Structures are given as structure tokens and as C-alpha cells.
């Protein structure tokens, strides 16, 4: 984005008007009208027209780059990858929760051998919690795997952005 001379998110015509090349072209053309029909005046007019054409080409090129390359890569960097990272953190949290419940269940199960009063209902409750936590972990794993496979399936599309950049004139 920092490489663009025009304003991000504007169409080619608006971007063209704000380019320094356009201002230079306008100044050259204005100066040529003051010099009227002299050789220098005609030269300034010709150079002003050329600068204006260069500014138009630059603005169209920047709009193309923005639409075809920068915006899709921005979507990858700011949406797809953060979503995968968020799901990985969620999975890590769910695994910790599952391990905690499993440790409590194991502890209750060991202590039930020595003290059998009232523990079967607690063991059953912990077993249900452990199963539920395990199901959440599996669901999160499946979703993360699906999103990562989907991301990797688009690898060719992502590579095409860089091929497009490298083949630009």
C-alpha cells in the first residue's frame, strides 16, 4: 500500500486527479498557454499531455494492482490466517479443559476404591463432563482441519497473485 502514489480505495479517475504527475501536467499545460505559439509553449503543451497520459496509466495500473493483488492478499493476511490462528488457540484451550476434567475424573476414580460413599454420582458427572469436553475438542479439531485444508486448497490461487505481479509490464 505504501508504494501507491494514489489514494487507496478510489477509482482510477479520482486517483488520477490526485497524482503529482497530474499536477505537473496541468502546470505545464497552463504555462504553455501563457507562452502561446512559441516553440517552448508547444513543447510544454506536448510534455504536459505526455505527463497527463503517464499519470492516467499509473492510476489505472495502481487500481489494477489493488483490485487483483493487494485486496485478495489482504483478505488472506487479515481474515483467513487470523481465523485459523484463533481456532488453534481455541483448540489448545479446549484440550487444556479436557485434560483438567480427565485428571479430576482419574482422581475421583482412584479415591472411589477407598471411599465408596457418594462418589458414583460424582464419577458419573465427571465422566459426562469429560465426554462433553472430548466432543468439543474433536469438533474443534475437525473445524480447524477443514479450514486448513480449505486454505491449502487455494494455494494455487495464492501463487497466481505473485505470478500476476511478476508478469506485469
From TrEMBL:
- GO cellular component terms? cytosol
BAR domain: residues covered: 1-169
User: Key word Ligase present in the record?
Assistant: no
Q: Which UniProt keywords apply?
A: GTPase activation
Sorted alphabetically, which Pfam families does this protein's record hold?
A: BAR
Residues of the signal peptide: none
List the Gene Ontology MF annotations in alphabetical order. GTPase activator activity
Which BP terms in the Gene Ontology apply to this protein? regulation of actin cytoskeleton organization; regulation of Rac protein signal transduction
InterPro entries in the record: AH/BAR_dom_sf, BAR_dom, RHG17/44/SH3BP1-like
| Database matches in PANTHER family | 3BP-1 RELATED RHOGAP, RHO GTPASE-ACTIVATING PROTEIN 17
Protein name (Swiss-Prot/TrEMBL): Rho GTPase-activating protein 17
Organism encoding this protein: Camelus dromedarius (Dromedary)
Q: What is the lineage of its organism?
A: Eukaryota, Metazoa, Chordata, Craniata, Vertebrata
Amino acid at each position: 500500500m505504501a508504494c501507491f502514489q494514489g489514494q487507496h480505495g478510489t477509482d482510477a479517475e479520482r486517483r488520477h486527479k490526485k497524482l503529482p504527475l497530474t499536477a505537473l501536467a496541468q502546470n505545464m499545460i497552463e504555462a504553455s498557454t501563457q507562452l502561446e505559439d512559441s516553440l517552448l509553449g508547444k513543447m510544454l503543451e506536448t510534455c504536459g499531455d505526455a505527463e497527463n497520459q503517464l499519470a492516467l496509466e499509473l492510476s489505472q495500473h495502481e487500481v489494477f494492482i489493488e483490485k487483483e493483488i493487494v485486496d485478495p492478499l489482504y483478505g488472506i493476511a487479515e481474515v483467513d490466517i487470523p481465523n485459523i490462528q484463533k481456532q488453534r488457540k481455541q483448540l489448545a484451550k479446549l484440550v487444556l479443559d479436557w485434560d483438567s476434567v480427565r485428571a479430576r475424573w482419574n482422581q475421583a476414580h482412584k479415591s472411589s476404591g477407598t471411599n465408596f460413599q457418594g462418589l458414583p454420582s460424582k464419577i458419573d458427572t465427571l465422566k459426562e463432563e469429560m465426554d462433553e469436553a472430548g466432543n468439543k475438542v474433536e469438533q474443534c479439531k475437525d473445524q480447524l482441519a477443514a479450514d486448513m485444508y480449505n486454505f491449502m486448497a487455494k494455494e494455487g490461487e495464492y501463487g497466481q497473485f505473485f505470478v500476476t505481479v511478476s508478469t506485469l509490464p
